[in-house]
Write a structure and sequence with these properties.
The chain has about 775 residues and is mostly beta strands. Among the domains are: about 220 residues, lipopolysaccharide transport protein A fold; about 170 residues, no CATH class; about 70 residues, no CATH class. The chain is built from three helices and 45 strands. It has a 29-stranded antiparallel beta sheet that branches. Strands 3, 4, 5, 6, 7, 8, 9, 10, 11, 12, 13 and 14 form a twelve-stranded antiparallel beta sheet that branches. A two-stranded antiparallel sheet has the order 1-2. The longest helix has 8 residues. The two termini are about 65 Å apart.
């Protein structure tokens, strides 16, 4: 049958062509129905077409005008054949066919393209062939010696292809790869390729299926695949099974298999469901739901399993027996994050993290195992010019029951935070206001309701001597209502459990002076800065003795280092404050030349009042404090070192020290770190200090060294690290990574060994092996 011809009024004449060429548009319209979807724009001096977006698989319109260009056109009216020759280009909207010669037989409705045939599909795929026969509006046809250039630089070749119904392309002797072909040796096999007896390109569902396929590396078969299916490289999201995972050995799972399925719900949401079957415990089903709304996001990760492992009791760090016998059977977890915009200034959100047990997370390798706690919160926050406001509620679940019991963890219901930073006023200063108010409830321990307000006013100025001054007026105030002050974490010296109302107000005046001296060298010598710094802080002596019956939620630690030398309050929070009269002095030096730098700071504090009840080794046990110092040395682009320390001149010892260094050249790098402290501060408040001294774990020195090295060269990479506790004379962890990556392939193997114990159990070694093939996916073994 003859194809239905569009109305001649839809044809667009081509500028610069003869009347005879323009009359041939009627014949071109019959060929136009055979074109496959394309997405390119053609510009010539004598013809121009503007492209229109067409989805993949959309048939060519029978109504839109058709435009062609060719060097010559000939007719054989007796046989009903039209022939275009020489640089033939025929397109409709953005559907394009190119060839050396195109012949259209009006009797059979078949168009034959010869020589350098190129067809551009709507998804960007370009088909190259020596010869093509097309019919039925390009819904049917054959092509020989096919080469296809697809998305992500993927390439597909076949001896021949047959198209049926514009939906299925059958290919014989197909080869697929996403690797670059060597320009100097095009006959050389690519890095990897799939060779198949035949392949089917399902353009409707946008999938490619291979049968009797081999995976070749450097032209050598390494794997046989009886059947293999993959998404078209142009597809970014498509429902279907993802790459399964097979792991031969795991300490708690044994050998296990994971089979994930991905479901594209709509354009803004999807769901991934994964089944896990193992040889040492029960099965698990986990899922992840994601949705991106116009006004927010939602991400839910959940799992349900039947855990057959039974937890055993063990002796924890404090010498107590811990463990639970109920962490088996039906177990599960849910991690949910969401955020929604209410207006331009306000948004709300949640972060919910719950699990039935830490051992379940360990047994099934659930992400997050190894943390001390899981934190959940819901919040409402607002943003203004120079201001921020947030109200939230928080809950905690302890994972390491050997250190943190859930009955000791608080509920924060709610917490309110507000911060304001104003513009310069008439006096040249800036006012800042901050408040953090909360209600902390503990089933076992102190419950506290707190109202707090901080007001700060800074006024900078300078004089003719080059001195930079900063005058600060600060007011700190808190009001508490608390019960059970004699319980954790305060352990106050009182036997009552009744409510106690207490508070504090601390006004502070501070004056700080920086006096920088600048020296500039000629001939690339750089710039030197010598900067004496002095500060005076005056405030009432509030006292911070451990005998004070005032809750302490945010000031349990104390850090006196170079970073807090000139701070008004050296506690991290506001429940404990630095009062009294004190002065801080320091000398800052800097030398910068040709992009290199040496920066140092040395200082100490002089205090009128001594609080003998601070945490041990605080560095403030005398009127003249410990000396704090910092140095950063980067003499060239190959070396970078930063070190910090605190030295007790009375005991002639180092109370704190840490260092980071890095050195290397283009393809090799070494990094290292060191930290030292005479105690482990984490355990100081873990026991009642009124009835005894801190636990023995507190007096174990923190003395650790970390060393790492990495190298890379022409796509190859190798790295390793080791972390060792010098005080405990044991390794904390070690591991390494090796890999290779090029334009279409990545290989990675990682090994990690942990020596730490959580929940009385120690996970030994972990090996992760991953192969990634571009456009196909990743295949890995974890164990």
């Amino acid at each position: 049958m003859m194809p239905i011809l569009p109305s001649s009024s839809l044809f667009r004449p081509v500028a610069g062509r003869s009347p005879q060429a323009r009359r041939s548009l009627l014949a071109a319209s019959m060929l136009g129905g055979t074109l496959v979807g394309a997405a390119i724009q053609v510009h010539r001096a004598h013809a121009q077409v503007h492209p229109v977006h067409v989805d993949a698989g959309t048939p060519v319109s029978q109504k839109d005008p058709v435009t062609f260009q060719a060097d010559t056109v000939s007719y054989d009216n007796a046989r009903g054949i039209v022939t275009w020759s020489g640089n033939v280009q025929i397109w409709q909207n953005d559907h394009v066919l190119r060839a050396d010669t195109v012949t259209y037989d009006r009797n059979t409705g078949i168009a034959a393209a010869h020589g350098h045939v190129a067809i551009v599909e709507a998804d960007g795929t370009v088909l190259f062939s020596d010869y093509a026969e097309l019919s039925n509006g390009m819904r049917d046809g054959i092509m020989t010696r096919l080469h296809a250039l697809m998305a992500d630089n993927a390439r597909l070749a076949a001896n021949g292809m047959r198209r049926t119904g514009a939906r299925v392309n059958d290919m014989a002797r197909a080869v697929y790869t996403a690797c670059e072909i060597c320009a100097k040796h095009p006959a050389r096999p690519p890095f990897w390729q799939l060779r198949a007896y035949d392949a089917i390109d399902d353009t409707e569902h946008r999938r490619i299926e291979f049968r009797d396929a081999y995976l070749d590396l450097f032209g050598i078969p390494v794997m046989y695949l009886p059947a293999f299916s993959m998404s078209d490289p142009s597809v970014r999201r498509q429902s279907g099974f993802l790459t399964p995972g097979i792991t031969p050995h795991d300490r708690y799972l044994g050998a296990y298999l994971t089979i994930p399925y991905y479901w594209v719900i709509d354009g803004q949401s999807d769901l991934t469901v994964q089944g896990l079957v193992s040889t040492r415990t029960g099965p698990q089903v986990s899922s992840q739901y994601r949705n991106v709304f116009n006004w927010g996001t939602l991400n839910i990760l959940a799992g349900l399993a039947y855990d057959t492992h039974h937890a055993e009791q063990y002796i924890n760090t404090f010498g107590n027996t811990s463990g639970s016998g109920n962490e088996h059977g039906v177990q599960g977890y849910i991690f949910a994050q969401g955020q929604a915009s209410i207006s331009r200034e306000w948004r709300t959100g949640m972060n919910i993290n719950l699990t039935t047990s830490a051992n379940y997370m360990r047994d099934y390798r659930v992400t997050g195992y190894g943390q001390e706690t899981l934190t959940s919160n819901i919040f409402l926050e607002g943003f203004g010019t120079g201001s921020y406001s947030r109200i939230d509620a928080q809950a905690y679940q302890g994972l390491n029951q050997g250190v943190i019991r859930n009955s000791d963890l608080p509920w924060v219901l709610p917490r309110y935070t507000f911060s304001y930073f104003g513009q310069p006023d008439a006096l040249g200063g800036r006012l800042a206001l901050d408040t953090t108010d909360f209600y902390v409830y503990r089933q076992n321990g102190v419950s506290d309701q707190r109202g707090q307000l901080s007001a700060n006013w800074d006024r900078p100025f300078h004089n003719r001597l080059g001195q930079l001054w900063m005058l600060t007026l600060h007011l700190e105030s808190t009001l508490h209502r608390a019960t059970s002050l004699n319980e954790q974490p305060l352990y106050a010296a009182t036997a009552t459990r009744r409510a106690v109302v207490t508070g504090q107000v601390l006004p502070t005046v501070a004056l700080k002076m920086n006096w920088p001296f600048l020296r500039t060298f000629q001939h690339g010598g750089g710039t030197q800065i010598l900067e004496p710094i002095a500060q005076v802080i005056a405030a009432p002596n509030s006292g911070n003795s451990t005998t004070r019956n005032m809750p302490n939620e945010d000031s349990l630690s104390y850090e006196f280092t170079d970073s807090t030398l000139f701070s008004l309050n050296r506690y991290p929070g506001t429940d404990r404050l630095d009062g009294g009269l004190r002065g801080n002095i320091g000398v800052h030096g800097n030398w910068t030349w040709n992009g290199h730098e040496v920066d140092t700071l040395v200082g100490e504090s002089i205090q009128e009042h001594i609080d003998h009840n601070r945490i041990p080794y605080s560095g403030l046990n005398h009127h003249l404090s410990d000396v704090v110092a910092r140095a950063r040395i980067a003499p060239n682009r190959y070396v970078d070192f930063t070190g910090r320390t605190r030295i007790d001149p009375y005991a002639r010892r180092i109370d704190f020290g840490d260092a980071l260094f890095s050195t290397g050249v283009t393809h090799f790098h070494v990094t290292g770190g060191y930290v030292y402290e005479p105690v482990t501060p984490y355990y100081y408040y873990a026991t009642n200090l009124h009835t005894g001294s801190p636990t023995s774990a507190y007096y174990v020195r923190t003395n650790e060294l970390t060393l790492g090295a990495s190298t890379n060269w022409s796509g190859y990479s190798l790295s390793g690290f080791v972390r060792r506790s010098l005080s405990r004379k044991q390794f904390v962890s070690l591991g390494g990574n090796a890999g290779y990556q090029n334009d279409c392939f990545a290989f990675n193997i990682m090994y990690i060994k942990q020596y730490t114990s959580i929940g009385g159990q120690q996970r030994n070694s972990t090996i992760m092996f991953t192969l990634t093939f571009k456009t196909i996916g990743a295949f890995g073994i974890h164990g």
